[in-house]
Amino acid sequence: MSDLIGKSLGRYHILEQLGEGGMAVVYKAYDTRLERNVAIKVITPSRQLSKQFLQRFEIEAKALAQLSHPNIVKVLDFGEQDGMPYIVMEWLPGGTLKSKMGKSILWHEAAQMLVPAAQALGYVHRQGIVHRDVKPANILIAASGQPMLSDFGIAKLLESEQTLDLTGTGVGVGTPEYMAPEQGAGQPVDARADIYALGIVFYEMVTGRKPYQADTPMAVVLKKMTDPLPSPARFVPGLPAAVEQTLIKALAKDPANRFQTMDEFALALEKLASKDLVALPVAFPSRLVVAGLAVGIVLCLLVAVGFILLPRLLAAPAPSPAALVWPTSMPTENVSPSPLPALVISTTSPVSSEIAPVATPVQLSTQREINSGDGAEMILIPEGTFIMGSDLAHDPLFWGAEKPIHEVFLSPYYIYRTEVTNSMYQACVTAAQCRKPDVLRSRTRKSYFENPQFNNYPVIYVTWQDAVNYCKWAGGRLPSEAEWEKAARGTDGRRFPWGDDEDGIGRAAFKHGDTEPVGTYPTGASPYGLLDVAGNVLEWVNDNYAVEYYNQSPLENPTGPDFGTRKGYRGGSWYSLIDGLRTAARASSKPDQAMDIVGFRCAMDENK
Question: Which letter does DSSP use for residue 264 in this model?
Fold first, then answer.
């Protein structure tokens, strides 16, 4: 196939070969019409493909072009020339994950690298697509360093075109080293085959080797069916048990014993990437002894300090909640705070109204769950206090609504990691529990809500009641203003989800012309890991809205004024300037108003 270099497929001029596999050859090419570089995958069977295959290829290519996810390589075009079908994709200059294989990668770095690929697979699985050929060569690296998944659906097409003749391996289309046992045996497969394949990739990244090795592809498949999984800890001394357990579950021979959805596997990888697990080298027991002695000394010191200070603490008068929460120079005549539980009373000294009080940082939650109601990923926000509001000296009719700064206690709750998308909301419409958005287009797109190309974009043109109905259908509710703000800013009073830096470029969708896919800007995540809490769309909250509410808000689990004609929303939108992305910024609208800059995310009590 190297004879294609220098020639053209349609309007695409072939420049160089990028890679070759059993099913296809990938080239770098130049699009002479749009004047840009692209990647072209040319299907290269050993004999002429049938007319039926070419018809299926066209149908499948059109379906793949509708996939929209930030970690999926975009299909731009397709065609056929001289009996050779080809798919045109965006060109990524960073190569593939395969170039990074062959040596052991730190387990938490490997997990972090694979999370986006797992999320992309979870997305396509929800669209009813199984990849069937997950491997390092099909995980491309964008210029930003983000992994991008490619080659959806091609294996399925070729498998249906008399697999044995096409591959010559006798084990079906795909790559035997990464195939699930049931796939290698020619049995029907589902999304759990992709979980197994990604598990092999994770194993190889962590250990520097594939778990099953043999002289022939068939021998590799047989080993997967009969041999136990080699313990990854054999090759990486001191590997944490949580990493090994994740690999064992992903690589179970029986699909029923694996993670049952890719979302579950992605969640496990995220926990590994974020957990502070310590892998102590077993080859150096003396380090364990030293560590044990150090821990013992620290514990003794803590006990001694406790005996000295405890009597004094018990004898000291307890400070009043008002003195602990409100800065001393702020008026408190109209404040009717409900007392905070003794367990969460802060001992921070009162500060000037011109400086936001800083809450003692807590260990931010890494617990995440998948909501069975709609498949959304939820993050647990632990109980505790946080700093709410700001003291900006602006127009009192708008920014004055953020005053005064105060400390609020919230019980634990879950909140969606991203905004509710078009595809999620469509499921509620299909279930006859939600009505369609008031308008089906967006600001620049004639077709938006019912266009599969925008499935992973935030739903818009929904009223407050629409948002309430959806969250109820999904088993949750809208978050309160306080819950939304804590999830967005954490406990340190930061101005933006990412910190105090006013440069939001690359961290949020703002000053744009329209919405973007949810989760496009991971560097703009909140301290708890929420995405898009700044920009993309404003988000309805459950509370009634009042400008002066903070002057009389309860200090424990506030839920907004009892009466009002407007509902609040938070977070800024694609249309906002940087100041509108601040975590304390408040705005409101009539509850029956639907706009192209407002969407929502849901919350849920911890005990549900």
Answer: H
Q: Which region among 140-154, 502-516, 576-590 has the lowest average model confidence (pLDDT)?
A: 140-154
Annotated catalytic residue, options 31, 77, 82, 133: 133
Q: Residue 263: which domain range?
A: 97-274
Q: Is 133 a catalytic residue?
A: yes
223 backbone dihedrals φ, ψ, rounded to 5°: -60, -40
> Do 150 and 184 share a structural domain?
yes
Summarize the confidence of residues 157-168 as an average pLDDT: 41
Residue 362 lies in a domain: no
Residue 297 shares a structural domain with residue 229? no
Six token digits for residue 81 = 């020339």
Nearest alpha carbon to residue 388 among 483, 291, 293, 305: 483
> What is the domain-level CATH number for residue 511?
3.90.1580.10
Look up tokens 């045109």; give the residue: 88
CATH number at residue 45: 3.30.200.20
State how far the Cα of 594 lies from the Cα of 414, in Å rounded to an integer.
26
pLDDT at 108 over 70: yes
| Number of folded domains that form the chain | 4
Q: What is the per-residue pLDDT across 319-353, written as a single tens digit (0 to 9) for each? A: 333 222 222 223 322 332 323 222 222 222 222 22
Of 164, 175, 184, 260, the closest CA to residue 225 belongs to 184
Residue type, 223: K
- Same-domain status, 194 and 288: no
Pairing of the two strands 139-141 and 84-90: unpaired
Tell me whether residue 35 is in a domain. Answer: yes
Q: d(Cα 544, Cα 102) in Å, to the nearest integer?
A: 57
Selection from 367, 368, 361, 322 nearest residue 345 by Cα = 322
Residue type, 273: A
